[in-house]
Amino acid sequence: GTHTMSWGPLAEGRNGLFVNPVLKEIGKVHGKSVAQVALRYLTQRDVIIIPKSVHRNRMEENFNIYDFELTPDEMERIKYLDLAKSAFFDHNDPETVKMFMGWRAL
């Protein structure tokens, strides 16, 4: 019953997310933005998304992802964009683990 949740589904735009040519091309086909394509990809993979914005137009855009569906080919193309590492922290680094868990070095 565990579900994956993304608190930063757009990775704060890191690694050139908003200018990625694959996401831009797929967005153009569907008349959607890169952000909408990325959020739709995650929802189609059953990831719970929590996109953040203080801009009303972006909030509305983030909700407008249920009127299209990515094809299996598009899903596969996006899957290969994965860098296999966090855009924020190295979760395998003991110091990162200590920081998250509030542990103190002895």
What does this structure look like?
By secondary structure, this protein is mainly α. Helices cover 42% and strands 4% of the residues. A two-stranded parallel sheet has the order 1-2. The protein is globular. The model has no long low-confidence stretch (mean pLDDT 88).
Q: What is the strand and helix layout of this fold?
A:
Blueprint: E1 5-6, H1 21-30, H2 34-44, E2 48-49, H3 56-63, H4 72-79, H5 94-101
Parallel strand pairs: 1-2
Give the structure's gist in a few sentences:
The chain has 106 residues and is mostly helical.
Give the uncertain stretches in residue-range form: none
Name the beta content range. under 5%
Question: Please, what is the average pLDDT?
Answer: 88
Q: Helices and strands, in N-to-C order? A: EHHEHHH
- Order of strands side by side in the largest beta sheet? 1-2
Rg from alpha-carbon coordinates:
16 Å
Biggest beta-sheet profile: 2 strands, parallel
Q: Tally the helices: what do you get? A: 5
- Looking at the structure, what is the overall shape? globular
Report, as a whole number of angstroms, the end-to-end distance: 36 Å
Number of strands: 2
Residue share in helix? 40-55%
Structural class: mainly alpha
Oligomerization category of the chains in this entry: single chain
Keywords for this entry:
single chain; two-stranded parallel sheet; globular; 42% helix
